[in-house]
Write a structure and sequence with these properties.
It is built from eleven helices and ten strands. It has helices at 3-28, 37-41, 116-121, 123-129, 135-144, 148-161, 179-198, 211-224, 244-247, 306-317, 324-327; strands spanning 52-56, 62-66, 75-79, 83-86, 226-228, 253-256, 264-265, 271-274, 281-285, 294-297. It is globular and about 55 Å long.
Length: 330
C-alpha cells in the first residue's frame, strides 16, 4: 500500500473512532423503542436497549445496523432535529420551532408557535435572531431558490447563544464542493455575517463565523438535511403507506438530525423515515429485519424509474446507486 493510501486509511480510522465514540454517547442518551409483542412481554419498566449500532460498511462508509430482530412495522427510534427551519413559503403557517401546522395563523405576527413550550424552546436561537434584520438574507434565499442557508442562519444563532457548538454537525459526512459552488456561497456568507454585524453582535461572538465554517456547514447540510413532509392524518398503517411522504402535503421545512443521517440509501429500503405532526422524526421498519442486517432508507421518491433515480442521486447526493434494485435495471 502506498504512503498516500496509508495516510488516507489512517485518517479514515481516526475519523471512525471519533464517530464511534460520539455515537455511543448519543445512543446512551437517546430513547429507543420497538413495539414487538416480545418486547412488550419482557417490559420491566426500563427503556429497551438500542436496537441499532453505527458501524462501517463494506462500500458505503458508515451505516446503521440492527442489533436484534426488528419486526415489520416496529418503531426503531425517534429523533429530534439538531436544527430545523420552516420553508419561507410556510413560515406563517407552521410553528417556528417544531414545524407543526398551525390551526390559526396571523400574518401580522413575525413568527408563531403551536404552544408555549415551543415558544420557550425557541429562545435558544430566537433571542439572537430577532435582533437582526434578515430581509436581505431571506430575499437572497427566495430569489436563488435556496433553503439550506436558512438552516445555517439558525445554527449560527444557536452557536452565538451558547446552546450549540460551532462544530455541532462536523461528524456528518460533507458533500464534495467544487470551486464554483464555493464561490456561489460567498454572497450568502457575506449577507449572514453582515446581518449579525449590523445587529451589533460582537466580534468575539461571531469569531467562528468564517467563510470556511459557512461552506463546511452548508456542505454537510446539503447531503444530510431532510425535507419535512407531514403525513398527519394520512398515516394509518406504515405497511400500507410506504410512499406516505409522496402523498403528504407540501414540505413545511427542512431539518438535520444526528442518527438518521447515518442511514445509507437503498431504492428498495427496509426502513422508512416519516413525520406525523412536527419535525420529530420516526424511523420504522418496512419489513422484518434480522440482527446484523443494515437498515437503509430511500433518500428520494422510490417510485421513479431507474434512470431518474440515478440522475437525482448523482446530482443531489454525489453517488451512483448500486443497490440490488438498480443493478437489476428496475
Amino acid at each position: 500500500m502506498s504512503a498516500l493510501a496509508l495516510g488516507r486509511t489512517s485518517r479514515c480510522v481516526s475519523r471512525f473512532k471519533t464517530l464511534y465514540s460520539q455515537t455511543k454517547l448519543f445512543l446512551a442518551s437517546s430513547s429507543f423503542s420497538s413495539t414487538s409483542t416480545a418486547d412488550k412481554a419482557e417490559d420491566t419498566g426500563r427503556p429497551a436497549p438500542p436496537p441499532i449500532r453505527v458501524s462501517l460498511t463494506g462500500s458505503a462508509g458508515r451505516g446503521v445496523f440492527a442489533t436484534r430482530r426488528i419486526g415489520a412495522g416496529d418503531l426503531i427510534h425517534t429523533a429530534k432535529p439538531l436544527v430545523a427551519h420552516p420553508s419561507l413559503s410556510t413560515i406563517h403557517r407552521v410553528c417556528y420551532f417544531c414545524l407543526r401546522k398551525l390551526q390559526t395563523t396571523f400574518r401580522t405576527q413575525v413568527v408563531q408557535y403551536c404552544n408555549k413550550e415551543c415558544e420557550e424552546q425557541s429562545k435558544v436561537f430566537y433571542d439572537i435572531e430577532r435582533r437582526a434584520n434578515w430581509s436581505a438574507y431571506d430575499d437572497y434565499c427566495r430569489i436563488e431558490g435556496l433553503k439550506y442557508p436558512l438552516l445555517v442562519k439558525r445554527l449560527a444563532c444557536m452557536v452565538i447563544s451558547g446552546v450549540a457548538a460551532a462544530d455541532n454537525i462536523d461528524i456528518l459526512q460533507p458533500a464534495n464542493l467544487s470551486p464554483p459552488m464555493i464561490s456561489e456561497m460567498e454572497e450568502g456568507f457575506g449577507l449572514l455575517r453582515s446581518a449579525f454585524i449590523k445587529a451589533n453582535t460582537t466580534n468575539e461572538q461571531i469569531a467562528f463565523l468564517t467563510k470556511i465554517w459557512y461552506t463546511s456547514v452548508l456542505a454537510r447540510i446539503r447531503i444530510n438535511a431532510f425535507r419535512i413532509e407531514l403525513v398527519g392524518g394520512l398515516y394509518e398503517d406504515l405497511l400500507s403507506s410506504a410512499a406516505a411522504s409522496i402523498e403528504a402535503e407540501a414540505a413545511v421545512g427542512n431539518a438535520v438530525y444526528m442518527l438518521p443521517s447515518f442511514y445509507n440509501h437503498d431504492c428498495d429500503p427496509n426502513a422508512h423515515i416519516l413525520w406525523i405532526e412536527n419535525a420529530d422524526a420516526r424511523l420504522k421498519a418496512l419489513r422484518d429485519v434480522e440482527a446484523g442486517e443494515e437498515l437503509r432508507i430511500c433518500y428520494i421518491d422510490a417510485s421513479m424509474d431507474h434512470d431518474a433515480r440515478q440522475t437525482l442521486l448523482s446530482q443531489g447526493f454525489g453517488f451512483q446507486c448500486n443497490c440490488l434494485r438498480c443493478l437489476s435495471g428496475d
